[in-house]
Amino acid sequence: MRSLMWGLRSLTRQPLRSGLSLAGIAVAAAMLLDMVMLSGGIDKSFTDLLLGRGYQIRLTPKGTLPFDTEATLSHATEIVAALRSDPAIASAGPVLGTSIYGRLPDSLVTLFGYGIDPAAQGLYRLSAGRDLTPGDTSGILLSPAAAERLGAGVGDTVTLVGRLDPQVVTASVGRRLVVRGVVRWLYDYRGQPSVGTVLPLMQRLAREESEDRASLLVVKVRDDAAVPRVAARLRERFPRLEVNSVADLVVQFKRRLVYFRQLSYILGSMSVIVTVLLIATLMTITVHERLGEIATLRAIGVSRGTVVRQVLAEGTVLTVVGAALGILLGLLTARRLDAILTSFPGLPAAFSFFVPRFDTLRTAAIVLLLTGSLAGLYPAWLAARTPIARTLREEAT
Amino acid sequence: MKFGIRLRQAGCLAGMVLLLGSGSLRAQISSGIALQRRLAQELGLAVGDTVRLGTAPDSMGGLALVTAIYEPRPDPADVTKRDRHVRLHLPELAALLGAPDQVDRFGLGLVPGVSADTAVAQLQRNAFGYQVYRSDAIASESSQTFLVVSRFHRAIAVITIVASAVFLLCIMLLKVEERRMDAAVMRFVGVRRRTIFGALVLEAALVAVLGSGLGTLLALGAGLATNAYYRRFFDTALTFSLITPTIVVFSVALSLGLGLAAGAVAAWRLVRTRPMVLWGRG
Question: How many Å apart are CA A290 and CA A302, to the nearest integer?
Answer without folding.
Answer: 15
